[in-house]
Amino acid sequence: MRSDDWQLGDVLDDVAGLFAERNRIDAALARRVRAAELAQAPERDGQRSMAAWLRGHCRLSGAEASRVVTAGRALEHLPALAEAAEAGLVSAGQVAEAAKAVTPRRLAVAAAAGVDLAVIDAVFTGVASEQPHADLVAVVARYLLGLEPDGPEPDPTEGRSLTIVRHADGTVTFSGRLDPVGAEKFQTAVEAHVQADRPAGDERTRAQRQADALVQTCDNALSAGSVPVLRTVKPHVAVRIDIGDLATGEGTAQLGSGAVISAARARWLACDGGIARIVFGPDGVPLDVGREQRLVSGALRRAVELRDGGCVFTGCDAPNSWCDVHHLVHWIDGGDTSLDNSALLCERHHTQVHHGYRVERRPEGRWRTWRPDGTEITVPAPLAPTAA
User: Fold this and answer.
1) Does an H or E element contain 358, and which?
2) CA 31 – CA 82 distance, rounded (Å)
3) Where is the HNH nuclease domain (predicted)?
4) Do 195 and 55 have their domain in common?
5) Domain around 136
6) Number of domains composing the chain
7) Which of 31, 109, 266, 308 could share a disulfide with 344, CB 3.0–4.6 Å?
8) Distance (Å, rounded) from C-alpha 123 to C-alpha 247?
């Protein structure tokens, strides 16, 4: 065998070894996450669940955080599979597949039917350790079909999902699944706009026309005010722009989501009376309403949302729509209803701040959080951002 063949073999051995090591780490992580969940450890940092803690402190996506938590619960019920995973023989993806069989409802159905879960555990482990991933998928599917031959009680919401991912440049990609009735409603609404907007010489693709139709459907709902009011403020498109840039059309502006757009595009948005807009400047929105008004006005709330972008409690990723505006110095204690004295907090963390936790905005704009005992809640050091 040639020397380069030996080197290629070494590289492939390294790949296999690294995958085995990753399997072991994934299994150990899932088990530790489950231990933390059982100990209610997230409560120490003001979080309601391990999934929320993982999103906020380890910067996982919602889907990834749920996968780790679900894996930890599944391995608790499937000890043979857990042992194989800890030995590096079973991947996190295989654990996720097996986890479908040990949801609380399916465990209850299995117990009522007298299913020996140890036997199922052994079968899953053998297939996962020795056969292709597709074989495990098939085995799990056959087990579930045997467990519930008629399937669960029909519920259209169980067949619906929508995943929205916002990228760093402000664009969004999404994927989803609808039940037949929901799909019919969705396609009917989109197709109405597709067919109504077909000008001569239109060179848009079918996909582009459908995307434009979806945006138009949302625009119509927002303009008509037919969407639910959130936290006393009608949902709106918010743009933050310097008054000089708005006047000249030069420079940039920032959307409520944090995405950056050109000042020229912001001017275009400002021309539409159906778009709520905030201008920060001496003659703009009144950001300080003093002591006479205790409740936060719609204008001030929008300003707080633009500045904070969601719950400011360390490790929380709750969006604006879930949040209250909190007075840092309580109104009853003499605090003003102003931008400087406001902080956006989700309901859970607003309650906690009124029961001993404390948030503070530093001069450079960074929020910090302290526990009732005076210790600070921080993101774990290995994942903390590098100091400027």
Assistant:
1) strand 358-361
2) 9
3) 299-351
4) no
5) 3-151
6) 4
7) 308
8) 70
pTM more than 0.85: no
Residue 365 to residue 340: CA distance in whole angstroms: 11
Beta strands 239-242 and 376-377, pairing class: unpaired
pLDDT at 272: 47
Answer yes or no: do 65 and 126 share one domain.
yes
Residues 91 and 205 in one domain: no
Selection from 6-20, 98-112, 154-168, 283-297 with the highest mean pLDDT: 98-112
As a whole number of angstroms, the distance between CA 191 and CA 152 comes to: 32
Kindly give the pairing relationship between strand 323-327 and strand 278-280: unpaired
Q: Is the separation of the CB atoms in 249 and 267 below 8 Å?
A: yes
| Residue 65: inside a domain | yes
**In whole angstroms, how far apart are CA 85 and each of 126, 192, 224?**
12, 51, 54
169 vs 194: CA distance, rounded Å: 27
Least confident of 1-5, 57-61, 216-220: 1-5
Q: Does 293 fall in a domain? A: no
pLDDT, position 280: 52
Crossing angle between the packed helical segments 62-77 and 79-86, to the nearest 10 degrees:
120
Q: Does the pLDDT value for residue 290 go beyond 50?
A: no
Arithmetic mean of pLDDT, 259-269:
72
DSSP-derived secondary structure for 86-155: HTT-S-HHHHHHHHGGGSHHHHHHHHHTT--HHHHHHHHHHHHHHS-HHHHHHHHHHHHHHH-TT-SPP-
For residue 173, what are the β-bridge partners? 165
Containing 280, the helix (H) or strand (E) segment is strand 278-280
Q: Report the chain's mean pLDDT, rounded to a whole number.
A: 80
**Three-state DSSP class for residue 10:** helix
